[in-house]
Amino acid sequence: MQELTHYINGAHVKGTSGRFADVYNPATGEVQARVPLATPDEVADAVEKAAVAQVEWAKVNPQRRARVMMKFGALINEHMEELAELVAREHGKTIPDAKGDVQRGLEVVEVCMGAPAMLKGEFMDSAGPGIDLTSMRQALGVVAGITPFNFPAMIPLWKMAPAIVCGNAMILKPSERVPSTALRLAELFSEAGLPDGVLQVINGDKEAVDTLLDNDTIQAVGFVGSTPIAQYIYGRAATNGKRAQCFGGAKNHMIIMPDADLDKASDALIGAGFGAAGERCMAISVAVPVGKDTADKLVAKLLPKIEALKVGPYTAGDDVDYGPVITAASLERITSLIASGVEQGATLAIDGRDFALQGYENGYFIGPTLFDDVTPEMDIYKEEIFGPVLTTVRADNYEDALKLVMDNQYGNGTAIYTADGDTARDFASRVNVGMVGINFPIPVPLSYFSFGGWKKSAFGDLNQYGPDAFKFYTKTKTVTSRWYSGIKDGAALNFKALD
Ligand code: NAD
Fold it and tell me: How far is the CA of 280 from the centre of ligand 1 (A)?
């Protein structure tokens, strides 16, 4: 069995705790590796070494730091197939989807290649008599990134690239379910010329995370994961005086207006609801058709499309639509939520629970599931299911649909399908959600904008990647300077006659 490592000071280091987590192949249910869970001492040692490396790294001029990003980006492109395979093997997503995972992380690295322009600071000449003001952006020091299982490449890259290009050192604690991609990315970063110690990958669980949260050297924490953990980490980091941004879970709605193109809307719902087995924080999990006629027609269009979806392991070819969910526990949670939906009176239009695939009986597969007639009191509406389950909540009119989205505790993403610009504008302006799609199902902003939800989908300030990341990973220092008149006024420059 493969034993994974930590990555400290540019080298793979074996764990010493004697504690390990199993890393599964979700398609077969087999344990394919074990990952060490770091002790507090191992974490503290990695942080100490990072602090030494950071001092020198921050002195490297921003353009040279950006050149490391250029090389890193080129290496990611060169190793795209290998990275996608690593992602798929531990996560279970299809190869095309895994390439998207790497690509959306790479795009953030590409923006970091332009870091000098983002780190320039501000200057005001003659703010008072002889007084100038300069505001500069300086690195924080050592920062921590704690990432979830569902994007093994993209989210570690969202954390490490902006933090490092700003002159910080990063301790990355990837999800213990999918640790291999982050370890490989760390190797590529070293190959790109990143000095040893600037990126340390520490594998671990709650014990390692808590050690980071209580470590005085750690200046900032960037977290992505479920809402209860995001809220916990935000609270503990903030109490310890750290800068923290913690992104949590989601329940994303798509409103379908009576004037929407239902072919396009239903296609969009299939991709956004079932892609990556619904394990995306921007997945659409609630369809909100407006009016009975729209709802009946939409469900009629969805049924054959959902039934045609192909579920299987990533090794079965690129026409597989989605793979298994991440763990047996996750599968169990999803099937019990489906049972609760039936008990609580929703109409189960398609039941994916009895899905079986020959040769993969122990894999964590579940077929696509569609609920109709869901109401806000039901658990399948209240809980983030994080599986291939699309629920339909019917609304009588636009205002009711909008209110449903507004009243939901989460505010990560949402979308509206309509042919009417006025409705679309009204929705974008009024809805209390961080990322909005208009005739666009998964509105993840491109890398030169920034990503962040509202309400219980994010704790702390500023979004991740894009211009906000350069603010989050630097501190502003403002210098007010005055130079009294000196030699200029006192010097006699005229051609004087001799006394
Ligand atoms: P998770 O919260 O279980 O784990 C995330 C990270 O926190 C992991 O590294 C894990 O080791 C660590 N962790 C888990 N329990 C902890 C504890 N008690 N104390 C300290 N650390 C702990 O999340 P997950 O299951 O890996 O990921 C899925 C969740 O992430 C979903 O809720 C999804 O919506 C969310 N997500 C959000 C975004 C976003 O940007 N808003 C993006 C992707 C995923």
Answer: 12
